[in-house]
Design goal:
9-stranded mixed β-sheet, globular, Pept_S33_TAP-like_C, signal, 529 residues, hydrolase, alpha/beta, single chain, AB_hydrolase_1
Length: 529
């Protein structure tokens, strides 16, 4: 298997998670409740700091062990095969009460193989929010000659993966749905969101108040201390850029080299972040439609852009009349747009082809009454429509709902959907839809971090990013004094971590990681065929 194959396999596995997972709201939203404690930039909470109860956490001795938890733990087995070791880092559940209950944060470490030229430790986060313990072997390859010079550390954020996971027993791996084509569909999506929140109220009431990005950043700093490092480097994509910028703000001076790949606008982070990204997704859908039209002989979706988009519209309309029968699944107008959205994370050939075969299946189900899914579509629908990965969506929602409050009135969402539907009939009902944060049982314990300061990081941004759109990247760039940005004219999310085929981006990022020298100015990497 080539590195390209490894890259595609890994990103396909997480596409239905990290690609659709970035959700949030602006800093001030109508109907949102005030949160009690103002955020402090220094990372402390009232009554808790390194000299007031946290010293024992920073000084703890880590016990390294094999990563595999059993014969069925594929992630653990791959880490062990690569030479990584795993450990649990003890942290306070509530940093304001460091003498109280503790939880374990799971980390993996792949030691630098080039010990003579070792640079230091790099903490990795691939976005989501989602687990990241699996990332070191994959990222070592992406980082080229710089990879062997770092101890690469994957850390599962609290509430996810192996780090005190929150599993609310959801019937889905995600909390994202479209509002569909009608008021009745919206009502069903609102009931779905309320049910998800209710399940979390019952399953995680004692933990939810302490799940937030600020606490994850505090956990990250305890990990740094427990590893014996004065500074750490960082490589984060998507949500990972928000975590990285929050960490840099809360703990100034503790980052060495840092890469932020497809950045979140901190002012927009929260339960409604997707609002506005329908523009980029409409653009990407048109680009894919042009691609599919050129291959009409292969896929039969239409011989022109208009014809392909018409096929997509017909599929959605059919799913609104009656859920499509796709194998064992029933796919309605709340799910079809999510499948479309989920497949617009890149403009690469192979993912576009997989997307086209999925649309073929949906078209057949719409026209003939039923169809059998392809392997990728089966995997995707299993994630979206069954509870096999409930813990993923549950933990993710705990973080996002714990970071910022959401409007509580369902009518506010319906009005916003209807206001934006004419301009984007496929995606606006999804990007502006209600979600569990509207019914979340606890309010955020702290205000969001006011990100900023002198943070000389390297940013990577794609102009056609469908998740963290280009204006979001520019917003964070303006906040981080000393940052430099590499812009790629392409429709892709997280191009560097994805292993997107652009030698210019990869060369410039890896040169920075190897030397620590930022480009003198912002740069543009031209697309490659």
């Amino acid at each position: 298997m080539t590195q390209e194959d490894v890259t595609r396999t890994r990103w396909r596995r997480v596409a239905a998670r990290r690609a659709v997972a970035v959700l949030a709201t602006g800093a001030a939203v109508a109907g949102a409740a005030a949160v009690p404690a103002p955020a402090r930039a220094d990372g402390r909470t009232p009554g808790a700091h390194a000299g007031g109860g946290l010293a024992r956490f920073y000084a703890q001795h880590l016990r390294w062990k094999a990563c595999a938890l059993g014969p069925d733990d594929e992630v653990g087995k791959q880490l062990d095969k690569a030479g990584a070791r795993c450990a649990d880092v003890t942290v306070p559940l509530d940093y304001a009460r460091p003498g109280g209950r503790t939880i374990k944060i799971a980390i993996s470490r792949l030691p630098a193989s080039d010990r003579a030229h070792r640079i230091g430790t790099m903490i990795l986060n691939g976005g989501g929010p989602g687990p990241a313990i699996d990332m070191p072997p994959f990222m070592r390859e992406v980082m080229g000659e710089a990879g062997p010079r770092y101890d690469l550390v994957g850390m599962d954020p609290r509430a996810l993966g192996r780090s005190a996971p929150v599993d609310c027993g959801w019937p889905s791996g995600t909390w994202i749905t479209s509002a569909g084509q009608s008021r009745a569909s919206f009502e069903r999506s609102a009931a779905f969101a309320e049910d998800l929140a209710g399940r979390c109220a019952r399953a995680g009431a004692g933990v939810l108040p302490h799940i937030s990005t600020r606490n994850i950043a505090r956990d990250m700093d305890v990990v740094r201390g427990a590893l014996g490092e004065k500074k750490v480097s960082y490589n984060g994509a998507s949500y990972g850029t928000y975590l990285g910028s929050v960490y840099a703000t809360m703990f100034p001076g503790r980052l060495d080299r840092a890469v932020l790949d497809s950045s979140v606008d901190p002012a927009a982070w929260g339960p409604r972040l997707l609002g506005g990204t329908e523009v980029a997704n409409d653009h990407a859908l048109v680009g894919w439609a042009d691609w599919a039209a050129e291959r009409d002989a292969t896929y039969g979706l239409g011989g022109s852009r208009a014809a392909v988009l018409g096929t997509v519209g017909e599929i959605i309309a059919a799913s609104a009349r009656e859920p499509l029968r796709v194998g064992r699944f029933r796919v309605d107008d709340r799910t079809v747009p999510l499948v479309l959205f989920d497949n617009l994370g890149t403009d690469e050939e192979r993912p576009r082809a997989e997307f086209a075969t999925s649309v073929q299946v949906l078209k057949k189900a719409a026209e003939q009454g039923s169809a059998e899914p392809t392997g990728p579509l089966e995997e995707e629908l299993t994630f979206l429509l069954t509870g096999g990965e409930s813990a993923y969506g549950s933990g993710q929602s705990a973080i996002v709902c714990g970071d910022a409050a959401a409007p509580r009135d369902p009518e506010a969402y319906w009005r916003e959907i209807e206001r934006n539907r004419p301009g984007s009939p496929v995606f606006a009902p999804l990007t502006h839809n209600i979600n569990p944060c509207a019914f979340w049982p606890v309010r955020p314990a702290e205000r969001p971090t006011e990100v900023g300061g002198h943070v000389p990081v390297l940013m990577v941004a794609a102009t056609g990013d469908t998740r963290t759109d280009y204006p979001s990247n520019l917003a964070l760039h303006r906040l981080l004094d000393g940052s430099r940005m590499i812009t790629l004219p392409a429709d892709v999310h997280a191009p560097y971590q994805r292993g997107y085929p652009n030698r210019c981006v990869n060369r410039k990022v890896n040169a920075y990681l190897a030397t620590g020298r930022l480009p003198a100015r912002d740069e543009i990497c031209p697309p490659e065929s």
